[in-house]
Specification:
Layout lengths: L1 H42 L9 H11 L5 E8 L8 E7 L5 E10 L13 E7 L1 H18 L4 E8 L5 E9 L2 H18 L8 H6 L4 E9 L5 E10 L6 H17 L11 H4 L2
Parallel strand pairs: 6-7
Antiparallel strand pairs: 1-2, 2-3, 3-4, 5-6, 7-8
Helix pairs in contact: 3-4, 4-6
Length: 273
Amino acid sequence: MNYGKGITEIKNESEENTSKRKIDTFKNVMYFVFYFILFIYISGLYKYIPKSKFAVLHKVKEAVAGENYELVSREYIDDEYPRTIKYVFQSTERNLEFDAYSTYTVRRNASLNFPGDDRLMSVVLVDYETAVRNYYQNGVMELVKASPYVDDYQIDKSWEERYSIYYIFDIDNYNQLQEVISTICQVSKLYEEEQNYHDTEWIKENPLCSLKIAIASLKEDGTKMRKMISEIDITGLEDEKTIVDRINNDYISKMKDGEIPWDPTIPGDAEGD
């Protein structure tokens, strides 16, 4: 009896020791993980760790709330550290492809002097808004470039890598203004489709482009001088009458204020608006 009881006690003691060793091992692992994370945070090394796939998908979900999409591919596009990971997404509702990047950026108003400089940050960039504009650009270019009054287009680009395109139309009189307004209304019609995917607030924050109208003249040295008449952000939210009335009123107001020469070709009914 005593011999059998001793075996049982030894067995229980062995199990207790095994359980204790497991607990101690678990504690040691947790301590290591904790101090490793603490070291990464205090040293600032977390800024140089590429954003995870989960972080990229979360950022994309925030940026693309209006339509369904799927991840098509994922690839490294830089051979040297720090590396950039490119994610390609495809809308499942239309022929629209956009990219997201797990990459690095230098803080604004800072220069990267050496690897330990605390100015390089890991970020996720999503070019969805740009892709949406590009989706319509062929139609916009076809309409705008067909106008004999379009003079130039430029790109406004900010440090966050978001940009918008604007076109300038140079006119001389009221009749030419009406032709330009017709072109603007057609461009606005293109962007109405975006209401199928996004609400009014999103569309207002992300206009398709900006269209500007100006009276142009040449200085004595041959350089062009412009007097801006009107500018409209294309959102597809305004109906044709609203656009026509707004631009015509801008034109007439500029003349009444003496900012541009009086145009004798204006119809009487338009002059009285």
